[in-house]
Design brief:
Helix content of chain A: 25-40%
CATH architecture of chain B: 3-Layer(aba) Sandwich
CATH topology of chain B: Pyruvate-ferredoxin Oxidoreductase, domain 3
Strand content of chain A: 5-15%
Shape of chain B: globular
Strand content of chain B: 15-25%
Number of helices of chain B: 7
Strand order of the largest sheet of chain B: 2-3-1-4-5-6-7
Structural class of chain B: alpha/beta
Number of helices of chain A: 21
Shape of chain A: elongated
Helix content of chain B: 25-40%
Number of domains of chain A: 4
Radius of gyration of chain B: 16 Å
Distance between the termini of chain B: 12 Å
Largest sheet of chain B: 7 strands, mixed
Number of domains of chain B: 1
CATH topology of the largest domain in chain A: FAD/NAD(P)-binding domain
CATH class of the largest domain in chain A: Alpha Beta
Number of strands of chain A: 20
Order of helices and strands of chain B: EHEEEHEHEHHHHE
Oligomer: heterodimer
Structural class of chain A: alpha/beta
CATH superfamily of chain B: Pyruvate-ferredoxin oxidoreductase, PFOR, domain III
Largest sheet of chain A: 5 strands, parallel
Largest interface: A-B, 39 and 39 residues
CATH architecture of the largest domain in chain A: 3-Layer(bba) Sandwich
CATH class of chain B: Alpha Beta
Amino acid sequence: MSTKGTKIPERLTITFAGITPAPSQEKGQDLFPTGNWRSIRPVYRDKLPPCNNACGTNEKIQGYLDLVKRGKYLDAYALIKEDMPFPSVTGRVCYHPCEQACNRGKYDEAISIRAVERFLGDLGQALAKDVVKPGKANGKKVAVVGSGPAGHSAAYQLARLGYNVTIFEKSPKAGGLNRGGIPDWVLPQDVLDREIERLVELGITIKTNVEVGRDVSWDDLKKNYDACVLAVGLIDANSVRAEGEDKEGVHYGLPFLRDIGMGTSKVKLGPRVAVIGGGNTAIDCAREALRQGAVEVTMITVEGGPHEMPAVPEDLHDMLEEGVELIHGRAVTAVHGNGRIEALQLHPAKFSGAINASPIAVDKEAQPHRFPVDNVIIAVGQRPSLKWLPDEFKNERGTIKIDRFGRLGDTNFFAAGDIVQLGSGQPLMVVNAVGDGKRVAFNLDKVLRGVPLEPRTIPVDVIFDLNRMNMTYFPHFPRVKQELLAPTSRRRTQEEVIQPFSEEQAVEEANRCFSCGTCNACDNCYLVCPEPCIVRDVRSNGLYKILVDYCKGCRVCIEECPTGCLEGVPELDFDAGVVRMDTAFAISPGLHGRQAEELKHLGERAAKNI
Amino acid sequence: MYTELTVWTRGIIMDKEGRDIVNSVSASARKEGKYAQAMENYVDNPDRTNCPTRKYCRVSDEILENELTYENENPNVVVLVEGTMVKGWDYMRGMPPGGTLVINTHYTPEYMIRFVPGPERLAQLVCVDAAKIADHKWLYYRLGELGLDRLSTEGAAERNKSIAPDIAAPLIAAVVKTTGIVKIETIQPMIANQHAFKLALEELHIMPLNPVAA
């Protein structure tokens, strides 16, 4: 490029024998800033990956998968602990809505996020000291009622915020539903024990065998604590309202599992067991029944088929592998037997409306079916037990009445978990309770600090469309499978069914992550920019910069960004920071006029002088 | 009466549009019996996609004395064929008071005025959404993706060789209507996209600023 006519700034001129040479390459960007060629500007704008959005507690899933990719396991564990107090538990029990939402599922197979979470959780369990520290003590006391997922999460977050937290648990061991509702072969007790220890290490006091309403009253809580989180869960089991349901040999799902979990079970099952219900607890009960000595386990559901059951499909698959039979479209109308259960009377039935959310229509006209059994486990949901709660805080569903911040009226009482989520449309799952506990803890903190509460913001830009990413960068790659115990051997043992990932497997699986819409420091933009106008010091997310004085807006980086985090924004949308450049393409004024003056006199000169 | 018209346009991808404006205005002026001249920018050799490039036109009642000066030093009318150019240069340089700035943009003059250097010299700021008026489907609807359209022909391979078949038509209408540099009825027969030309006469966003007393 000729520099003729160029207004070269004084600092860039190197006069040598009266000639200003062409600018060197390194000075070129200063001399020829081409930023004004651009009509769109590339901008790094991280979107929300669908996994983070789907997670009940909004774990930064993409973030920790990215750290695992790079072998930064401890950082990944610390990141997960921001939202999730017990990754080792959810890494085993979570119904992983993240994996359902995973964009990779539309491409080949979803990332095995839960398995990586478990890998990190187990890593955290092995640490002598946890990465999480209690916050600076603020001298305020908070009571948390219930040590299940929601209570655990709320207490954990409050301790991190510097509160003096006391947990009340009515059972002899802390853990709530994590201990009482989840069988050992899914979540071993020692894993949960270790997580409870972590809570104690944070300075939280756990008082077991203390029941609110019996040992502690509403007024005690109000008087002795600055605030209180009620995470009491759903305790009482629903019945099926069948004739003779009170006979010996009839058990209820959650108490059945809870007693086994607490080690206080006296249940002896006969060879033929029926499980009523089609949800996750029913599946756990059916599989637990096999391990408690039953030979034939049959699951009786109102739902018309396996696809209608409100259960995690993998668990259903594993249960069928273990040999549990399914009967669909039937409801129990009577329990026959003389003192002890002998058989069930089944009638055809179906939901009168939406599955699991409408009354059951039983066809009493049809011929009943007699189904001989030795035991029956009824697992058709739970309901709250809130006799101790003042009536003004109860709602028509029988649960706690809260505002959208989880607060009871204008008191300093908050409620979280199943006790408020029942009937809200939210699946009653561990991770949703954890998320609820977390949000309520933050709201409680704001109330005590006198900061105004803000409603949950709805994320506006979640990447669901694969076309927003550059899929050419992602070869198809199968999901790394978690190994399972053989169905025949696991029927009789309390050993964990699903086996953990090795380090190699975890890294391999994390490597499959698209990092949807989020910069993961792949360096691609840095490499593909045809001009060197993307700069960075360290290869790390968020540290890439674009030299806007030089970027021509060629869009190569935007098109080549694998994750879709770079986007083109019309330059005119930036109404500040106008850079008006005096460049090679806007020459010094009047130059041609001066030349033309000379040209006018050309004719007057002698030919040799031209 | 001596008027200078400078058109700022994008190299290669909008080269022909800029050329059409200066050529048609100067041709009309000569038809009206004036002295007129139109030329390309011979200085910067700006044959690069998206690079800023200029087209010049001069119209005078008297003989042009500076016909060998290939640069408008005091443009009375400036046209920006692509809206983003409003940010990039001092296109107002040398403009005497009472000038006109025409921008192809969907933004309003109230928004665009903030980017204009030295707006006190303007008698009017005119915004015309030429891409929309000309209903240009294959390129200008995708202004945000301009960088992808690397034709690299400098207009030589245009399918339509007529004058102002697309976004140049509304811009010419804007220039002629707001400045009166030539008469509308002289220039209109030259324009290929008659529909866009007529529509633009109705759909100009004119912001009156500092009129100069005649």
